[in-house]
Structures are given as C-alpha cells and as structure tokens.
Amino acid sequence: MLPQHLHHFETERQQREAGTFGMWIFLLTEIMFFGAMFLAYLVYRNWYYDAFVVGSNQLSIPLGATNTAILITSGFFMAMAVWASEVRKKGLLLLFLVLTTFFGLIFLGIKSDEYHEKWEHHHIPGQNFSVAEFVNPHAYGLNEKPLAPDMAQKTQVFFSLYFCLTGVHALHMLIGIGILFWLMWRARKGDFTEGYVAPIENFALYWHFVDIVWLFLFPLLYLINRHPGA
Amino acid sequence: MTQTHDPSNVTNPEHSVHHVVPPSTYLMVFGTLLLFTALTVVAAYVDLGILNPVVALGIASFKAVIVILFFMHVKYQSGLIRMTVACGFFAFLVMTTLSLSDYMSRAWGLW
C-alpha cells in the first residue's frame, strides 16, 4: 500500500478510480459551463449569420491554427508526463511538465497578441467598438460584403462571444498553469515517481479537457465561411 | 507488477491489469491531431455549402474523441468512467435540445 492510501478504500485501484471518477464529475460541470456559452453561440450564429461571417473574418487563421497546434503539443507532453510518472522516471516527468507549461504559456502569449490587435481595430465590444469597417469595408481595405447598420451592430455579439469563450478558456489555462507549477515543485521532490500517480493523472484530465474546448472553439470562431470571394 | 499469493483476491478484486499507455500510442494520436487540424483549415477554404460547419464540427468531434480515448485513457478505463463520460455528453445534449426547441417553437426570428 502506498503512503497516500486512505483507510476507507479497500484497494489502491479503488482509490485511484474514485479520484478519476471525481475529476470526471468536475469535468462534466465544465462541459455544462462551456456548453451554455456554445449554446448561446449556436443561437446567435443562426440569427446573425452575416455579422458572424464578417466578425470571424477579422480573426487570424495563421495565429489560430498555430495556437491549436501549440495546445495539441502541450496536451501531448502532458500525456507523456503521465507515462513518465507511471514508469517512475523523475527527470522525464519534470521535463514533460516543463514542456507542457511552456507550450501553455506560448498559447497565452499568442492569445494576448490577438486580443491586443482586436483592441487596436476597435473590435472590443463596448465604448470603444466601431462598426465603421463593417458598414463600409472597402473604404478600410477589407474584402467583405458591406453590412446594413443594424446587422453591423450585431458583430458586437460575435466579438462578445469571442472574448467570453476564449477569455474563460484562457482563465482555465491560467489556473491550469498555476497548478502545473505546484505539480512541478512536488515532482521535483519525487512525490509522483514512487507509485502515486493520481495528481498527475487527474490534472492531465483537466488539461486535456481544456484542450478539447479549444479544438471546438477554433473552427467555430475562426473558420466561419472562409471561401474566397464569399 | 508482481502479485503475491492472494487466494481470496483482496489485492485486486476487480481483476484489473493496470494498463500503461505507451508513448508510441501518444505519438500517433499527436500526429493525427495535427493532421486533422491542417485538414480543418484546408476544408474551411473549400466551398462545401451547408456542409462546411458539419465537416468542421465533425473533424473537431473526431479529434475530441481520440483525445478522450487515448490521452485521457478512457479506452483503458472501467465501465464506471466510460458511463460518466457518456453522461456528460448526454447532459449537454439535453441542454441543447431543450433550449433549442424552446427557441424554435416560439422565439425564432423575433429579435
């Protein structure tokens, strides 16, 4: 029995499974949390499709696709960290945790660059928002269909959803990175390479979940109607 | 992991073998995820009409499934865990279906 074995569990495996079960229950609440925002997106995209198309075209596909690849890489390294913990290789575990954190931070860096660009273009909903480029795109060098003023105002709905969805996602990543630093500190002490894998394993579930949310966010936000000449 | 003689099977009543997923599996999933990301971007630039969002979401769902099965180990887990994951998606489905049917039956287009 491991030193972390708790008396009310009969076997190690039972304790481990209870922990995994608990983490999945939490992830279910997260599915509902993000799910509600996805539902809002679903309704508004159907109602204000033209505004969503134009809004989506203001996002950078190269940055979004790169970020997707970066987050997938981060997830891969987290999966490798679980393996390293299971085969009790402390050096590798630390390396993979560091790489996971590193790629997570790069993702957030690119995200903040994108947010900054949105600020500069007056695409942040609220006082600083401007529909000028959407009502008269050709004057601003945009290859878009001009929108009627009321539909142009609806691009604010798109950007609100963009900032809410990616913002809450980024918050989850920040929290995850915080936990990663704690895990790295403990891993360095050898806490996770003597048979006790649960914290690494269960954090990996959280991290992969955050990755999956982004896998859906990317096509829904960045790839609405990108056909040339549309 | 070696098991000592245990006639009443106290150590492992679930008869389970703890499965360690090898790095080669992770590498294959990693490669697949990157490939399908590229595919999603390429597909966005092709005019598939009404199928564009379908293809995009289909690819995203496939990627989510392989992350869940392999990175999150669900393929190697017990029925309890698999049932829990299924419940999560079912709950989301219920929320979506009921909310959409509310909108579609009385508030569609009334913005």
Task: Summarize it.
By secondary structure, chain A is mainly α. Chain A is built from eight helices and no strands.
Description:
The complex is a heterodimer of chains A (230) and B (111). Chain A has eight helices and no strands. With 230 residues, chain A is an all-alpha fold. In chain A, helix 1 (12-47) packs parallel to helix 8 (198-222). Helices cover 74% and strands 0% of the residues of chain A. Chain A has helices spanning 12-47, 49-57, 61-86, 90-120, 132-135, 149-153, 155-188, 198-222. Chain B is an all-alpha fold and 111 residues long. Chain B is 64% helix and 0% strand. Chain B has helices spanning 23-44, 51-71, 79-106. In chain B, helix 1 (23-44) packs antiparallel against helix 2. The radius of gyration of chain B is 21 Å and the shape is flat. The relative contact order of chain B is 0.08. Chains A and B meet through helix 1, helix 3 and helix 8 of A and helix 1, helix 2 and helix 3 of B.
Task: Please give the structural blueprint.
The complex is a heterodimer of chains A (230) and B (111).
Chain A: H1 12-47, H2 49-57, H3 61-86, H4 90-120, H5 132-135, H6 149-153, H7 155-188, H8 198-222
Helix pairs in contact in A: 1-7, 1-8, 2-7, 3-4, 3-8, 4-7, 7-8
Chain B: H1 23-44, H2 51-71, H3 79-106
Helix pairs in contact in B: 1-2
Q: Which features characterize this protein?
A:
heterodimer; A: about 230 residues; mainly alpha; about 0% strand; B: about 110 residues; 3 helices; about 65% helix; flat
Order of helices and strands of chain A: HHHHHHHH
Strand fraction of chain A = under 5%
Sheet-strand content of chain B, in percent, reads under 5%
Morphology of chain B: flat
Could you tell me the mean pLDDT of chain B? 86
Indicate the radius of gyration of chain A in whole angstroms.
Answer: 21 Å
User: In which range does the helix fraction of chain B lie?
Assistant: 55-70%
Radius of gyration of chain B: 21 Å
Class from secondary-structure proportions of chain A:
mainly alpha
Regions of chain B with pLDDT < 50 over 5+ consecutive residues?
none
Number of strands of chain A: 0
Mean pLDDT of chain A: 93
Number of helices of chain B: 3
The portion of residues assigned to helices of chain A is over 70%
